[in-house]
Amino acid sequence: MKIAVLPGDGIGPEIVAQAVKVLHALNLDLTLEEAPIGGAGYEAAGDPLPEATLQLAKEADAVLLGAVGDWKYDSLPRDKRPERGLLRIRKELNLFANLRPALLYPELAAASTLKPEVVSGLDIMIVRELTGDIYFGQPRGISTLENGEREGINTMRYSESEIRRIGRVAFDIAMKRNKKVCSVDKANVLETTELWRQVMIELAKDYPEVELSHMYVDNAAMQLIRAPKQFDVMVTGNIFGDILSDEASMLTGSIGMLPSASLDANNKGMYEPSHGSAPDIAGKNIANPLATILSVAMMLRYTFNDEVSAVRVENAVKKALAQGYRTADIYTEGSQKVSCSDMGDAVVAALSL
Ligand code: IPM
Ligand code: MG
């Protein structure tokens, strides 16, 4: 089995190094090969997704990604910017199903900005569609109108089959969990999501055991803060999922804790932390590597079907937390503040506990 390792920009290289350390410590029969993406891709080959990187990612069984983006690339033309590399690799590999679990580790209840009783026991799976919606819809662009004024255009669109395949992923996951799916839309205003709702209702007939509910995205944003434990699986489109998954991450104490998996129809996947490249703290060895390490656990589970190793990694993270180790973002008084690489070492050590 081959893993393409794409560290990317900002804190990407440091957090990926910790995840790679954990992978090596598992002693599995895996080959790792590294390539640049994002700003690093632009520096190396003038392209945020260099052809060689894309080829490697296509050949590999799974992709481990750090993060992309740095303010210093903000003035580049849009197709050269780091984010475009990420969006393109998602699209090229057809990774339409983005799983973003928001799980609260009991040790971190105090690190959440919400009251412990609101978040303790929280376990939500956000299923975000990743290759459609306003992110990719045509027409798009900035043009100049006849009166000389500029106009920006993006297009929200979803075909029935795109909605159905992400819906299936959500229902299948719900069957292995608490059998509840909340579909998030804005069907009161947007036709695209009115269709979304209709397709979810049709699909639910194939899953009689699953309880399907619907929520408008504005209400969902509010309910996530008011009473997040009402949710089991949430399924939504690309842009709503982008926003709600950042919101959900804060319930768990820090976005630095949230892994993600982006899967195609055959469970080939790209695994990355849900957070960004945080250029402000890059190179300081203070970032939280746990989201990336937990992404490795998701890789073992979803692509390599190795539940035993996945649980081993997750348990090692829990043990490191139980031992009191905290990176700065999840630090609370009385715990032990550690660096990014120390946290990686702590997880590796906990693998053999
Ligand atoms: C994410 C990020 C990306 C997105 C950006 C970096 C393009 O915010 O993975 O959530 O919007 O999908
Ligand atoms: Mg985002």
What does this 3D model show about the protein?
Its EC number is 1.1.1.85. It comes from Methylophilus aquaticus. With 353 residues, this protein is α/β, with parallel strands linked by helices. The protein folds into 2 domains: 1-96 and 281-353, Isopropylmalate Dehydrogenase; 97-263, Isopropylmalate Dehydrogenase, CATH 3.40.718. Helix content is 40%, strand content 20%. The chain contains 12 helices and 14 strands. It has helices at 12-25, 39-45, 51-59, 82-92, 116-119, 160-175, 191-204, 217-226, 238-251, 290-302, 307-322, 340-351, and strands at residues 2-8, 31-34, 62-67, 97-103, 123-129, 141-144, 150-153, 180-185, 211-216, 233-236, 259-263, 269-273, 325-326, 336-337. A 10-stranded mixed sheet has the order 2-1-3-12-11-4-5-10-8-9, with helices on both faces. Strands 6-7 form a two-stranded antiparallel sheet. Helix 8 runs parallel beside helix 9 (238-251). It starts with a strand and ends with a helix. The relative contact order is 0.16. The mean pLDDT is 96. The structure holds 3-isopropylmalic acid and magnesium ion (MG). 3-isopropylmalic acid binds next to helix 4. The site of magnesium ion has 2 residues, from helix 9.
Give the helices and strands, then pairings.
Layout: E1 2-8, H1 12-25, E2 31-34, H2 39-45, H3 51-59, E3 62-67, H4 82-92, E4 97-103, H5 116-119, E5 123-129, E6 141-144, E7 150-153, H6 160-175, E8 180-185, H7 191-204, E9 211-216, H8 217-226, E10 233-236, H9 238-251, E11 259-263, E12 269-273, H10 290-302, H11 307-322, E13 325-326, E14 336-337, H12 340-351
Helix pairs in contact: 1-10, 1-12, 6-7, 8-9, 10-11, 11-12
The structure holds 3-isopropylmalic acid and magnesium ion (MG).
Main location: cytoplasm
Family: Belongs to the isocitrate and isopropylmalate dehydrogenases family. LeuB type 1 subfamily.
Binding site for Mg(2+): 218, 242, 246
